Amino acid sequence: MGRTAAIVLAAGEATRFGSPKQNLLLPRVLERLRQTSVDEIVVVEGAHAIEITRDTVSQGPIVVRCGDWARGPGASLRCGLRALGPEVEAAVVVLADGPNLSPLAVERVLGDWRTGGGVAAASYAGDRGHPLVLGRADWADIPDEGLRDRPVRLVRCDDLETPGDVDTEADLEPF
Question: What are 91-120's pLDDT values in tens digits?
Fold first, then answer.
């Protein structure tokens, strides 16, 4: 069986937040990914440099600079996918501003992908969310706007906490 990698999209400007939220939220997302079976982690930076210290995680992720980040999340995802070696068969896509990412959701969606292939995404109360898993066969033709409109197989994660979505400082309160 091939390797799996997590791609953390952390390239946005964070204009609604008012400062680079990636550096604030990323350590928690990385720690949760470390509790999963993914073999490697790639963080995609863009508008702001990502600061990862040894204190943050025991094994640092690969940080990839995406010059095209302003084109959209799909451009950032393409940058992350290009950083993966040929032995990686699937990518688990998560967002840097989802600090409550459940390691169980990652395992559940990855397990579904392993049995069904294609593209699989977590769903919470019927709404599509993250993580999303796509195999190498689905890495081509990713539009700049991302995979939001691409058909996916939804994997119910209603019993798990949603990853959250921190857009403003007020959104930090539950975290």
Answer: 999 988 888 899 999 999 999 999 999 999
The answer to whether position 171 is within a domain reads: no
User: How many domains does the chain fold into?
Assistant: 1
Per-residue CA distances from 131 to 18, 51, 100, 107, 173 (Å): 25, 23, 11, 9, 22
Q: Give yes or no for a contact between 54 and 60, defined as CB atoms under 8 angstroms apart.
A: yes
Distance of CA 90 to the CA centre of its chain: 12
134-170 residue pLDDT tens: 999 999 999 988 888 889 999 999 999 886 654 555 5
- For residue 169, being part of any structural domain is answered with no
Contact 31, 2 (CB under 8 A): no
* Run of H or E including 45: strand 40-45
The residue range of the domain holding 89 is 3-161
d(CA 23, CA 135) in angstroms, rounded, equals 28
Q: Rounding to the nearest 10 degrees, give the CA dihedral for residues 49, 12, 43, 84.
A: -120
Query: Do the domain assignments include residue 175?
Result: no
Spatial separation of the C-alpha atoms in residues 102 and 155, rounded to whole Å? 13
